Amino acid sequence: MKSEFIRTLLFSVVQCTGMEAVREYRLSSAGLAEAQRIAIRRYWAPQLLIIAAVLVLSFFLATRKAGIGAVFGFGLITALLLTYIFFVVPQRAQRRLATCWDSYKLTVGSDYLLRQQGDTPDIRLPFSDVKRVERLQGRYLRVIGSERFQVIGIPESIENFEEVLAAVCQIARPANLQRDRSLKGALLTGAGFAVYLVMLWSRSPQVVLPLALVVGGLLVWLFVYMRRSPNISRRNKNVSWVYLLCIGLCILKVLTLLPKTAGH
């Protein structure tokens, strides 16, 4: 009985010692200002595409001598959109980033990584499920799992980054990225919205039908992505329902042009 007690005690000590291998890291408060600056710079790229689309549409409305009602309605929507883009969105983005920044926590366990952040779902990634690791020098690490949407982003402004990097390198050697992939996504989103505006204001079936297919497919993909991705906050997941309304407008636009297409 005495030897049994000693073995149990030793096992408990080993367990407690193993707990010390679990390390937690948070983002440095000093890196928040730089992250906000990068986020705003990345935000302006798609917005410039939207503004360009608005100017092009205004030109076509003027040259085609659209009715005063259409011009007035378009001007009102344009003014509201530009006000929202230039004044509301940047401030909200900075506040949201500050909240996410303060709540970010990375846990490096003996055989897993765990990312916790705000109201986004936790991501637990066992080392055995890691498919590859990517690094954008000076910006972040991306640890990608074997399952879809299983991605943990680790900003380089995290506390003790070199220690985190050494731990990640033991899992897989990082592949160096040449450019920020999130910028490409932002540009595609902005281009998609610009194309969506062109589709809504066009009266030509030859223009509307192919654009509706492209934009509709993009909206469906964005809706599914936002609903399933664990890197999207619960609040933004609710916003994704707006995409269904946009898809409905695409369908309505196509239905209004079908009689004109059949007439030809």
By CATH, the architecture of the domain at 106-176 is named Roll
Under the CATH scheme, which class of the domain at 106-176? Mainly Beta
The ordered string of helix (H) and strand (E) elements is HEHHEEEEEEHEHHHH
Number of strands: 8
Helix content: 55-70%
The strands making up the biggest β-sheet line up spatially as 1-2-3-4
**Major beta-sheet overview:** 4 strands, antiparallel
CATH topology name of the domain at 106-176, in short, is PH-domain like
Q: Which segments are poorly predicted (pLDDT under 50) over 5 or more consecutive residues?
A: 1-20
**Class from helix and strand fractions:** alpha+beta
Number of helices: 8
**Oligomer category:** single chain
* Overall shape: elongated
Structure notes:
With 264 residues, the protein is α+β, with helices and mostly antiparallel strands. Among the domains are: 106-176, PH-domain like, CATH 2.30.29; 202-259. 64% of the residues lie in helices and 16% in strands. It is built from eight helices and eight strands; from the N terminus they run H-E-H-H-E-E-E-E-E-E-H-E-H-H-H-H. It has helices at 2-19, 32-63, 68-103, 161-169, 181-201, 205-228, 234-239, 241-263; strands spanning 23-26, 105-108, 112-117, 120-126, 130-136, 140-145, 151-155, 175-176. Strands 1-2-3-4 form a four-stranded antiparallel β-sheet. Strands 7-6-5-8 form a four-stranded mixed β-sheet, with helices on one face. The radius of gyration is 25 Å and the shape is elongated.
